Amino acid sequence: MLEKEYWEVLHQKQAYLKQKIAQDPWRLVYHLMPETGWMNDPNGLCQFNGTIHFYHQYVPQEAAGGLAPHWGHKTSTNFVSFQEEPLFLSPNHAYDRDGVYSGSAFVEGNQIHFFYTGNVKHPGDHDYTYSGREQNTVHVVSDDGFTVIKQEVVIPHDAYPAGFTDHIRDPKVFKRGDVYYMILGARTVDNQGKILIYESDNLSEWRYRGIFFGVDDDFGYMWECPDYFQIDGQDVLLFSPQGILNQRDAFQNRYHSGYILGTVDWETLRFKHATPFRELDHGFDFYAPQTFSDEQERRILWGWMGLGDTMPEYSNPTVARGWQHAATLPRELKVRDQKLVQQPITELQRLRGVHQQRHIQSSVGEITYQTATTAYEMAITLDKSESKWQIALLEDTLLQYDGTTLTMTHGPSGYGRKHRRLKIDHLKHLHMYVDTSAIEVFLNHGAACITSRVYPTNRKPTVAMTGVNQALIDYWPLINE
Ligand code: FRU
Fold it and tell me: What is the number of structural domains in the chain?
């Protein structure tokens, strides 16, 4: 049980961080971010009686993270204005004392069932991979999303199957027919990522059914945050593998997140893949996404707009200002041509100020666009003959296309982030969401995305384009009241 002193220190530290944050012009205008301190993965996403619940990994008292995370909580009725709620879960028990780690929500009837990983590190000479760690699967029942009416360990660490390290975590629960299923990310003793599957009739007693998905080739040592769902009858498996080697135009980050399309054999409970693993985002700051189905049955994804363990490659200057990291925009998922496409959800249009449109007919040289604010949305529809162009925006960010590859380059405002590349043919549409210290670009109507944090000091809201001779430009300032 956390002592009174823990909470006193937490509140004192939070009050101190709030003062720093109040003066920070890098606070985001329309992306979700921690009120104070550190945020990582989105957790427990659901909509219940109209209210959208966004929970997240949260260390409110320390911007650098590293302490046992809680579940922070924000709610909304429209995906645009969010309210900060009290902490939902805290590392309060023997089975989660070193962190209420990631997990999911499952809505049934008039209750929400949450499942998370209770992380425990035993003192001693341990590496916390092969020994010394417990990752218990915990079930929480709530009838409103704010209060806990039941909390129980449903799979204690020592009940996991043999052959795995101490890393088994991030439960995601779903139902098919009368049976509940839970998938978990895992690392084997010979360092291969796998996804385990359990089944249950009552959400409390779980039977191990084997490996839902794994590959024989080398594809990372650990798979975090698995998610399974269907879109239009198509089975989709999402996960975040760690340990994949970097390539020039793909897998450029330290850790990655992506998906596979395929089919589930419901007899054997095995996922058979039909496509290769494809990354969901090609920028610097995207990891541990989670999806849920909202009350309109749209499949919505939120990602962590950040990444762990990146030091010393790049750093985040907001740590000195009392906070770190954020969430991506909510993105609606669809399947198009055997690929997932991600689009900013339509509710974000509520942020739009006065629309301006410019038709570029036959320009030579540079076209400059003065935007009215530092938070804006811009959609550029290029003529199909445009194959080489560049767009300079924010302080020193450059998007360059050479006909086959898009490169995003950051100057000093990237704080160590430099280049990210992705192969994309026939790039004709760029939909950019620029915030005070973030950029999310949706390419070819969501066929690919590139998301990064940047920290400009010079707030010159100019967009300068070269090589864009014929295009339609739609621009909206974004205002969050
Ligand atoms: C992913 C992750 C999860 C874990 C959580 C802890 O970023 O490492 O696997 O549950 O973060 O904060």
Answer: 2
